[in-house]
Design brief:
39% of the residues lie in helices and 16% in strands. The chain has 153 residues and is an alpha/beta fold. Strands 2-1-3-4-5 form a five-stranded parallel β-sheet, with helices on both faces. Helix 1 links the parallel strand 1 (14-18) and strand 2 (45-50). The longest helix is centred in the first third of the chain and has 13 residues, at 22-34.
Length: 153
């Protein structure tokens, strides 16, 4: 297995977005691409976006992203089934972003047991353009935490 961009100093960590909703892929892409450091430089590099778990596995193998933002409810192959396969083909930290994985839910526990680094609940109801404001900070915090290396590692 290999890792993506973080192995090269000065290279931004790469992110693969997996969601069947084109609107969610667009919103998450804007969130990732809009995250800047104090100098105005992009923190993340968007490796790609895909609509289902089956394509995600192939892309994870080819792109070796550092982070994978993964929805659960998708056609073809859902996120919970794709998660262990993604982890098997690359070292990406998988962060589940789903409306059905609320705190305390069985889905959330299943995601964490399957190897997710974090689970962030989407706002309930229809996909809204305010996702970046309502959950964006939580998603970005989970991404940063997933890549944080323990001291001495």
């Amino acid at each position: 297995m290999t890792t993506g961009g973080t192995d090269v100093p000065g290279t931004q960590p790469s992110v693969l977005i997996v969601d069947d909703s084109s609107m969610m892929r667009s919103l998450l892409s804007r969130l990732v691409e809009g995250d800047r450091d104090s100098g105005g430089n992009s923190i993340w590099r968007l490796a790609g976006t895909v609509p289902d778990g089956r394509v995600a596995i192939t892309q994870a193998r080819e792109l070796c992203p550092d982070i994978c933002l993964l929805d659960l409810e998708m056609p073809e192959l859902g996120g919970l089934d794709a998660l262990p396969a993604i982890r098997a083909v690359c070292d990406a930290a998988v962060i589940v972003v789903s409306s059905i994985a609320a705190p305390g839910s069985a889905e959330r526990r299943a995601c964490l047991m399957a190897g997710a680094s974090a689970v962030v609940a989407k706002p309930s109801g229809a996909v809204s353009a305010d996702l970046v404001e309502t959950r964006g900070r939580a998603i970005l915090s989970a991404m940063r935490a997933a890549l944080a290396r323990p001291e001495g590692a």
